[in-house]
Design a protein that fits this description.
CATH class of the largest domain: Alpha Beta
Structural class: alpha+beta
CATH topology of the largest domain: BirA Bifunctional Protein, domain 2
Number of helices: 21
Strand content: 25-35%
Radius of gyration: 37 Å
CATH architecture of the largest domain: 2-Layer Sandwich
């Protein structure tokens, strides 16, 4: 939120010596983080004055450009001759002229110079050239009268425009939405500095009822609705410079008097308003939810299909507005609008939040409604807007005001007066606590208990819907007094047994993978259906079992992830798009797989859940295995004196998994497989052999070209993903460590012939199982396919190492073990000893 200091000083009586930096520090200390301070107009220096265009001549030149040779009166004896390329002005218009010697934003110095056959003695300025906005569509035209008089020629234009100001850019977090207004910021500043604040929007409601334009509320999602009718608005009246300047400084574009007034009051009060052209309304206004098949053309010209959960403003013609989000095109104000019905209402925050996300229509109004608006301020805000339309546009305010609904009662709370001090661990007196509460607008009453001390009965103001339970009030005290009073104290650790086996195993894996040269990332745990399509997942792929979020951060990713790969692919694409071509990254995190359980439960939050409720909640959660994934592209080793560059390929994807397995003492097997998103024939299935059979833990290899193209990845990029929880479950949990044998190893080589579709890993496992306990090592050192073996067959040569712990092996013992290994390979894999 952008907060102009000139506006803020009107709402809070600041001591004359208070600087903008001190204001920023005070707001930041109160939880309203000031990101930066912008000095509007501060970069403009020298003679920038008001001028009047007397006449001009249009001239076309050889380069195809048409310019205007202008004579401009700047309050001197003779007019100035100025060349201008814009065409949005006419003789008699008042403009802003930068004379020679002026300096504009960016250090642009103005001087008299010859151009297009003339000496241009200055420059007629646009809004963006003065640094007071982003409009560059044409030069800035000043009103014909300012304060009832024509602008004084030669006067300082920046003063006339009233644009010199300091603007605070404040980060208003969602939990303090009540500060999303000048009124809210001013209240927080006044409390932080200990000065007075007079609320210009204090509730002052007469009896509620329908007296003016007829309104009916047919949904509990609308708390109240105020309608004020105005007639005779001057459709040609323009917004005064002070209002336009403040809107621009606050980040909103001035449009027309009616719209500008509603925006101005919204920024000041926090209450969004909407103005309807009364002549375009048909029958009473009705607030209701959408019906199936209804459509609405919004002010942006888009016809939208409405959802039954959308809250609408309607009349006899149908929907005329998406409540709290955007008005409809059929009743919008136009250049000829003279009669207006002004709306100020309070809508359910959750409903508005879902609507603007559903229709992708985040606006200043919907942002405020979704974070919570003061339900007591609609009438005061509507009256302020009506008064401004009367003063600035000559509108007549009808006495009858429609007020439907009510102001809801705020929830009370009872807390111990010493609770903030005990929770915050700071010396905060009961008097300080009460002072903070009353300064925050909280009604405080109390009673003394002989045993427990002072109890406080609290009722928050209408703008503080965030104050519900005792610890909300504790946070309020901590924020207002300042967290600097909290004494740092480390918690005393309880006796324990250290990390669990799973925790230490996970840490060992992450350390090993990072030590192997891979960089760990943490990506967001969300995914879209389109990303699963890009991966090439079939309809029956388990990764299609997604968990949909009820309130996603982004509509483009409404599901919890079922694989880590899309997030890593985005990171890889972002790096390579910034010329960081050598990328070797990994992530460890949970994925979320939907199951046939009933779904999430919401226990009562007014008390601590019972053990059975906690068990029911955890029992209904989706499956959440922890995965380890990595992606790689570019050069693993750069070219140098030692040789050419070594590019990343499938071996590095497999290497990442082998490093993880080695850290756990697990031996992995590999075989060819076909699985999205890997390239068929270049994908390894990774498994662990147990007594019950092979347990698949993941896959690694080169990505399919279509997947790489869909995600914008380099050609032949590689990836791996394994189930880390499954791998840890298969890891040995300790035991006796075998002593190193002092006796020599007996080496035997064996070559067997098998069918080409038989994997080397399955043959190797058969040799290991057949050789028995004397086998200490085994290594595949040759694969042969050629004339010396039958067609469709291949030769695999292994080096076997045998050793006994207590003696030197005899040749016969090693030969017997070798023969047993070959026999097992023959039985399982159809292996034949090669002659």
């Amino acid at each position: 939120m952008r907060v102009p200091m000139s506006w803020l000083r009107e709402l809070v009586t600041l001591p004359p010596s208070t600087t903008t930096a001190q204001v920023a520090e005070t707001l930041t200390r109160a939880g309203l983080q000031v990101e930066r301070i912008e000095n509007i107009g501060g970069e403009v220096s020298g003679p920038v004055v008001v001028g009047k265009v007397l006449e001009f001549a249009a001239e076309s030149h050889k380069n195809g450009k048409t310019i205007r040779w202008c004579h401009v009166d700047v309050g001197e004896q003779d007019p100035r001759g100025i060349v201008c390329g814009a065409d949005n002005f006419a003789p008699g218009d008042y403009v802003v002229v930068a004379l020679p010697g002026a300096v504009l934003p960016g250090g642009f110095e103005i001087s008299a110079r010859k151009t297009y056959g003339h000496v241009s003695d200055g420059m007629i300025c646009a809004v963006d050239e003065l640094g007071i906005g982003k409009d560059h569509s044409g030069i800035l035209i000043l009103p014909e009268t300012i304060g009832g008089e024509p602008p004084a020629l030669g006067a300082d234009a920046m003063d006339v425009l009233m644009v010199r100001d300091e603007v605070l850019e404040v980060d208003v977090t969602p939990d303090i939405g009540y500060a999303l207004s000048m009124r809210g910021v001013a209240r927080e500043l006044a409390q932080g500095l200990g000065v007075d604040f007079v609320d210009p929007y204090l509730p002052n409601a007469p009896a509620w009822g329908v007296e003016g334009y007829p309104v009916r509320i047919d949904s509990d999602k609308c708390v109240n609705f105020v309608a004020i009718s105005l007639t005779g608005l001057d459709s040609k009246a323009s917004s005064p410079l002070w209002m336009s300047s403040r809107l621009s400084a606050a980040g909103m574009r001035p449009i027309s008097l009616g719209v500008d007034i509603t925006n101005y009051v919204m920024l000041e009060s926090g209450q969004p308003l909407h103005a309807y052209d009364a002549g375009k309304l048909s029958g009473p206004i009705v607030v209701r939810t959408a019906e199936p098949g209804e459509k609405l053309e919004t002010l942006d010209g888009v016809t939208r299909d409405l959802d039954p959960e959308d809250l609408l403003i309607t009349d006899d013609s149908g929907p005329i507005g998406l409540a709290g989000v955007m008005g409809g095109a059929t009743t919008e104000l136009s250049d000829g609008t003279t009669d207006i019905v002004l709306e100020a209402a309070h809508f359910d925050p959750v409903t508005i939040g879902r609507s603007f996300r559903r229709h992708k229509l985040l606006s200043e109004a919907s942002m405020r409604f979704a974070r919570g608006v003061d339900p007591a301020v609609p009438l005061a805000a509507a009256r302020m807007a009506a008064r401004l339309m009367d003063e600035l546009g000559g509108a007549e305010i009808r006495e009858e005001i429609t007020m439907v609904g009510s102001i809801p009662a705020m929830p009370g709370c009872r807390i111990r007066a010493d609770l903030p001090a005990r929770i915050l661990g700071a010396p905060i007196s009961e008097e300080q606590v009460i002072e903070v509460f009353r300064a925050s607008g909280i009604k405080v009453s109390g009673d003394k208990d002989e045993v427990t001390g002072e109890w406080l009965s609290l009722r928050p103001p209408t703008w503080r819907s965030d104050l519900v339970d005792p610890y909300d009030y504790v946070e309020e005290v901590g924020r207002k007094i300042g967290l600097g009073v909290v004494r740092p104290e480390l918690p005393r650790p309880l006796m324990g047994r250290g990390y669990t086996f799973e925790q230490s195993s996970r840490a060992a894996v992450l350390d090993a993978v990072a030590g192997a040269g891979f960089v760990e990332l943490i990506t967001l745990p969300f995914i879209s259906g389109e990303e699963l399509d890009k991966l090439g997942c079939e309809a029956n792929d388990p990764r299609r079992a997604v968990v949909r979020l009820a309130n996603p951060l982004a509509d483009t990713q409404p599901f919890m992830r079922t694989t880590l790969l899309p997030g890593l692919f985005v990171a890889l694409a972002r790096n390579t798009s910034r010329s960081n071509d050598d990328v070797f990254v990994f992530e460890c995190g949970s994925v979320f797989l939907a199951n046939d359980k009933p779904g999430s439960l919401m226990p009562d939050v007014s008390r601590r859940p019972r053990p059975d409720e906690i068990a029911a909640v955890t029992g209904n959660l989706p499956d959440q295995p922890r995965m380890l994934a990595g992606v790689m592209a570019g050069e693993w080793l750069p070219a140098g004196w030692q040789g050419p560059a070594q590019r990343a390929d499938w071996r590095h994807a497999v290497h990442l998994v082998l490093v993880a397995a080695d850290a756990l003492g697990v031996e992995l097997g590999r075989r060819n497989a076909q699985r999205a998103p890997w390239h068929p024939g270049r994908c390894a299935e990774l498994f662990v052999t147990t007594r019950e059979g092979d347990v698949v833990v993941g896959h690694a290899g080169e990505l399919h070209p279509k997947v790489a193209k869909a995600f914008g990845l380099p050609a032949r990029a590689c990836a791996t993903e394994i189930n880390l929880d499954a791998l840890i479950a298969l890891a040995p949990r300790g035991g006796q460590v075998s002593s190193i044998s002092p006796f020599p190893m007996t080496k035997e080589d064996v070559a067997v012939v098998v069918d080409q579709d038989v994997t080397a890993s399955s043959v190797q496992q058969a040799l290991v199982d057949g050789a028995g306990e004397l086998l200490e090592s085994i290594r595949l050192f040759d694969v042969y396919i050629g004339d010396q073996v039958e067609q469709g067959r291949k030769s695999l040569a292994f080096a076997l190492g045998f050793r006994a712990p207590d003696r030197t092996l005899k040749a016969a013992e090693a030969s017997a073990a070798r023969d047993a290994a070959v026999a097992m390979a023959a039985e399982r894999c159809g292996a034949v000893l090669r002659a």
